[in-house]
């Protein structure tokens, strides 16, 4: 009948229990959050997980976080929302950080609690209202003064958040701030490592290649994961040129290597933004579509950045990185490109040094080749000169005798044979003369200022018949540029050019193109004439020998003397040959000649140039017929020559000319005879054992200055006018003798004697 009840108020305990439970739950969530955030390498899934816990913990409908982009505070880099539609998430992604609830929190950097979104006039209503959200709390994520984003919770029914709710929310947000920071640092470190790896790979490649193409290729490959480029153009200033070489590299489809394309050189307008960047030190972003040299580089409508390449503060070029439309450069991209430019500059500098070295080496090798060739030709020349001298004496005897017999004998048959002998001897003498032409060290003719262009025109004109007469058509081209005058002998220079043109024509038996050009090489300070053909060309072996006397690939047709004579002539003109030839393609032979120094031109007016050739030095082209009865005076002549054949033939010729002759075999014998007797004229050989011709001439002149002295020498021997006069020589009697010419010289000597006495 009685109930004993104990009533105990457990409200407080329940509340306490509830609070405890909640605390527990809270702690476990925070714990989970803390654990999650240590997995820094996947910030995305951490964020998703934390948002889910937050929804559960606070009993809200949705939660999300937007993390700002490090490089661009106008954008969000990470956007993670849970408990909402995909449309809403898309909306949040497109959002800029000044809009809506987020914008408010970011702008104030303070917690924002919005009980009724629709009624709050501080925020624009959009996505949140559409999604049916009524209340929201937004909290900036701040770690060490840095605001890295905003975290928001939403409810679909109006809710007034308690102090506890807010406290918990703040705790989670704080944890998250640390996580985001860590992830950001980790990401940065990781990208830094990737970038360093790429750079080190590029540097390694640079170290092992001196080829610009290869370096650029590697840069293009390694940049793919680092910069979302569409195309990169590399412009490198060309040495000694005012334009740039251009290489392009396009992003290749995944799995393929990008390929470097070499483009036409490009000239940069002085007002081009590229030109400006070239002299700057930093990478400069260009507004989309404004590349300046746009078209040539195939600029896309997207943004681009110019990165100067400089070594030792000297601009070497630049590269232009073009992004696809809609992409953009981050600050660290530009910094990395600047780094890359530094490495490229080093490699380019190395490549240039290497190029210069190689050029120097080639130059050295050329110089050595030239030296070897000139030594070889020098000794060949000495040998040839010796042979020519002896051979000349032999020919003198044959020719003299033959010509004498022609005068004495009447028999037609014999005369015919004599003419053949005479012709053969004359041909032989011609060859000897050409050998001497090659071997001579000095020109026996005075040099005068020569204008090359008229000379070239004249020779080309003269060779025209030969070119027209060719079996196959030869196209002709003459290209004469401004060229300074040279000191030289016009007839010798004509001979060189004629030889070159004939050889060029010989090289084109099936026709082709012959070009003769003149010009001036400012680097070498040389006037030049070149003859180019599209003929058979030469092998390196042939090319090495073309200046050797008697070297010919033309068999019976060739004498092999054209180039050697030309070599001698050019040598005496202090010039040089440059030969370029490719088998089957053609040959270009250029003759470089030193121009007259301007000082010389000023000092000596042209009218008084030393161009006077002495009459006896003129060649007699067509022999005059031997006069049947000579009208000239008879003379008493002393002939001194150590070569008995020469001495006798000369004596006989003179006697045939009705002169009285006394002959001597040595200089001293001659002098003795001269002292004892009386002579009108003395003819002496030059090179004799014992007393030389020079000494004989001087001796005669000291005894009787009025007696003309003639020197017997081989054709073309190098004798200097001043030297001749100095030794008292008045005449030259060229060997081998031509009957008529010798007698003419005697007449001349007699006239001279009359003048002298
Ligand atoms: P030749 O013409 O009598 O053979 P050269 O001294 O003029 O003698 O030339 C020597 C050789 O050099 C020629 O036989 C030929 O092999 C070579 N040569 C010279 N010029 C040319 C040329 N333009 N193209 C090809 N070979 C050439
Ligand atoms: Mg020739």
- The average pLDDT is 83
Q: Any low-confidence stretches, pLDDT <50, length ≥5? A: 599-630
Coarse structural class: alpha+beta
Helix content: 40-55%
Main beta-sheet strand count, sense and barrel state: 6 strands, antiparallel
Helix tally? 21
In the sheet with the most strands, the strands line up as 8-7-6-11-10-9
Strand count = 23
Strand content: 15-25%
Short description:
The chain is an alpha+beta fold and 757 residues long. The chain is 47% helix and 20% strand.
Structure report:
The protein is of the alpha+beta class and 757 residues long. Helices cover 47% and strands 20% of the residues. The protein has 21 helices and 23 strands. The strands form five sheets. Strands 8-7-6-11-10-9 form a six-stranded antiparallel sheet. A five-stranded antiparallel sheet has the order 2-1-5-4-3, sandwiched between helices. A hairpin with a 2-residue loop joins strand 10 (304-311) and strand 11 (314-322). Helix 2 runs antiparallel to helix 6, helix 10 runs antiparallel to helix 11 and helix 12 runs parallel beside helix 13 (490-506). The longest helix has 78 residues, at 331-408. Mean pLDDT is 83; it is low at 599-630. The site of adenosine-5'-diphosphate (ADP) has 23 residues, from helix 13 and helix 15.
């Amino acid at each position: 009948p009685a109930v004993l009840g104990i009533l105990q108020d457990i409200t407080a305990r329940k509340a306490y229990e509830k609070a405890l439970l909640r605390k527990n739950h809270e702690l476990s969530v925070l714990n989970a959050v803390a654990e999650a955030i240590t997995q820094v390498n996947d910030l995305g899934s951490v964020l998703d997980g934390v948002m889910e816990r937050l929804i559960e913990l606070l009993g809200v409908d949705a939660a999300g976080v937007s993390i700002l982009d490090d490089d661009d505070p106008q954008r969000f880099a990470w956007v993670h929302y849970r408990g909402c539609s995909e449309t809403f998430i898309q909306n949040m992604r497109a959002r800029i950080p000044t809009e809506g609830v987020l914008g408010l929190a970011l702008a104030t950097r303070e917690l924002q609690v919005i009980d009724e979104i629709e009624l709050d006039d501080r925020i624009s209503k959009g996505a949140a209202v559409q999604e049916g959200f009524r209340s929201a709390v937004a909290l900036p994520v701040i770690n060490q003064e840095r605001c890295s984003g905003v975290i928001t919770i939403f409810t679909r029914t109006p809710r007034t958040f308690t102090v506890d709710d807010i406290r918990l929310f703040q705790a989670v947000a704080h944890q998250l701030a640390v996580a985001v920071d860590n992830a950001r640092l980790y990401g940065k470190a990781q990208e830094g490592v990737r970038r360093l790896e790429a750079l080190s790979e590029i540097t390694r490649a640079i170290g092992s290649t001196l080829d610009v193409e290869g370096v650029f290729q590697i840069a293009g490959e390694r940049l793919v994961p680092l910069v979302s480029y569409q195309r990169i153009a590399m412009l490198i200033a060309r040495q000694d040129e005012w334009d740039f070489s251009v290489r392009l590299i396009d992003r290749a489809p995944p799995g393929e290597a990008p390929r470097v394309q070499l483009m036409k050189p490009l000239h940069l307008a002085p007002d081009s933004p590229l030109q400006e960047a070239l002299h700057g030190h930093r990478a400069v972003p260009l507004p989309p579509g404004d590349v300046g040299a746009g078209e040539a580089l195939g600029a896309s409508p997207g943004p681009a950045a110019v990165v100067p390449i400089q070594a030792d503060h000297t601009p070497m070029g630049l590269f232009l990185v073009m992004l696809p439309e809609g992409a953009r450069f981050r600050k660290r991209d530009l910094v990395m490109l600047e780094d890359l430019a530094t490495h490229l500059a080093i490699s380019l500098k190395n490549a240039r040094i290497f190029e210069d070295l190689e050029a120097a080496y080639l130059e050295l090798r050329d110089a050595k080749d030239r030296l070897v060739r000139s030594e070889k030709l020098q000794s060949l020349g000495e040998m040839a000169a010796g042979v020519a001298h002896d051979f000349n004496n032999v020919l003198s005897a044959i020719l003299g005798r033959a010509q004498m017999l022609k005068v004495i004998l009447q028999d037609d048959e014999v005369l015919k044979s004599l003419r053949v002998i005479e012709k053969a001897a004359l041909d032989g003498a011609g060859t000897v003369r050409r050998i001497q032409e090659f071997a001579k060290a000095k020109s026996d003719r005075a040099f005068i200022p020569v204008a090359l262009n008229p000379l070239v025109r004249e020779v080309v004109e003269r060779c025209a018949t030969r070119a027209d007469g060719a079996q196959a058509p030869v196209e002709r081209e003459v290209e004469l540029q401004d060229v300074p005058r040279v000191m030289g002998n016009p007839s010798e220079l004509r001979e060189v050019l004629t030889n070159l043109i004939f050889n060029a024509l010989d090289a084109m038996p099936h026709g082709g193109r012959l070009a003769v050009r003149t010009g001036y090489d400012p680097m070498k300070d040389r006037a030049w004439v070149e003859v180019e053909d599209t003929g058979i060309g030469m092998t390196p072996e042939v090319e090495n020998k073309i200046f050797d006397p008697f070297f010919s690939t033309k068999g019976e047709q060739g004498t092999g003397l054209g180039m050697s004579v030309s070599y001698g002539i050019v040598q005496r003109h202090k010039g040089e040959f440059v030969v370029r030839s490719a088998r089957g393609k053609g040959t270009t032979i250029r003759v470089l000649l030193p121009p007259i120094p301007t000082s010389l031109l000023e000092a000596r007016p042209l009218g008084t140039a030393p161009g006077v050739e002495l009459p006896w030095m003129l060649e007699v082209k067509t022999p005059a017929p031997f006069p049947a009865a000579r009208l000239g005076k008879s003379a008493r002549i002393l002939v001194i020559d150590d070569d008995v054949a020469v001495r006798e033939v000369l004596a006989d010729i003179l006697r045939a000319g009705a002169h009285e002759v006394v002959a001597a075999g040595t200089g001293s014998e001659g002098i003795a005879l001269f002292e004892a007797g009386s002579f009108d004229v003395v003819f002496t050989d030059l090179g004799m054992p014992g007393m030389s011709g020079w000494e004989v001439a001087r001796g005669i002149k000291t005894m009787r200055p009025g007696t003309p002295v003639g020197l017997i020498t081989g054709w073309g021997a190098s004798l200097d006018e001043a030297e001749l006069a100095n030794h008292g020589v008045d005449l030259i009697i060229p060997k081998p003798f031509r009957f008529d010419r010798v007698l003419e010289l005697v007449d001349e000597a007699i006239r001279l004697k009359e003048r002298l006495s």
